[in-house]
Amino acid sequence: MRDLIALAAKVPAIIAALHRLRKGLSPVASRPELGYVANYLSMISGEIPAPQQSAALSAYLVAAVDHGFNASTFTARVIASTGSDAASCLIGGLGSLAGPLHGGAPSRALDTLDAIGAVENIDPWITEQVLAGERIMGFGHPVYRTEDPRSALLKEVARGFGGERVEFAVAVEERIPVLLEQLKPGRALHTNLEFYAAIVMELCGLERALLTPTFAVARVLGWCANILEQCDDPKIIRPSARYVGPAAPQPLP
What enzyme class is recorded for this protein (predicted)? Predict the structure, then answer.
């Protein structure tokens, strides 16, 4: 447990330091008088964040801390079940965030808004994507078939900031169900965590390159809890598989 706590505490500091170094800036030390979230934002920007930004990002981190056996958590638990060390378990979880369908989704949700550009482009852009069978990033979830409750929470957080960006995001969200009912009757598509999470993180001053790392700042605590739980079970996780390929060749008589 001590190793996991130490590693989890280092993740936001490492992310902030690497981000600044890549921009040619010196890392910023943490401030003892600031809380966890305010310190993270401060170590990134070099400035003390506004209270609203700290509260908004805190809401996101709490909403994203854990969510069942998602890809990254399952990866971390599988590694833990082998008896591996804490660092290897967390690295495995981090590696699963590289793809666009898990941790990489928030920045791509902003790309969707940028691609649409304006309210008058919502209908033609969404129509083109749906008819082409393309995925609309920020929408849809493998578990939820209704609105993601985390999305509803972050939508209200975003509305607390107000502004054209938030209003545009809400307009996009409201049009998609209407268009889908016309184009694909019976097919529901709702916002997932990443859609409004991306808006909230953007409003907190985080660049797109930091959205997935910030997701890791939240989820690393969930990984740690799952790793500890998995360590209490001495059995290795080894899912069974069923062959569905061509039948084996038959011997000649």
Answer: transferase
